[in-house]
Amino acid sequence: MENRISIVVDAAAGPLEQYFAKALANYKNRGTVSAYLGKIGGFERNHHAVLSGIYKSHIRIPGVDDPWLKTTPIHRRVSDNFLIFAVHNTYPIHIQIIAIIKPDGHEKVKKLLPTIIDITEKRFQSLNERELNSLISYK
Asked: Which stretches of 46-105 are assigned E, i.e. beta strand?
């Protein structure tokens, strides 16, 4: 079954969020890596973020940054911009974009993580399957 990528309700779902929702869906469902999507990891040092299913991907910003070379493996693609997303704990085919942190992602994420956890729990992890299926999503 294909992953369904949505954007958190109340977020400004502008072109950048939509671009990365599509890029993440293409990667998760087809293995196609966008030239602007980088290394994916979790927040292993924060127990609450792990329990909330929160992950980050290093990203480059289209129109601002040069894309990574196709020959650069995803695990070597690092930047100071982050795509923050969560995987639903009960229905893991549902993934939601929570935030894009740019620039200075490494510094800002430390301060924003408690808020990101709160948003994830209240606006994503609390949704039931019917509510998740009603979200606008990318496959």
From this structure: 54-59, 82-87, 94-101
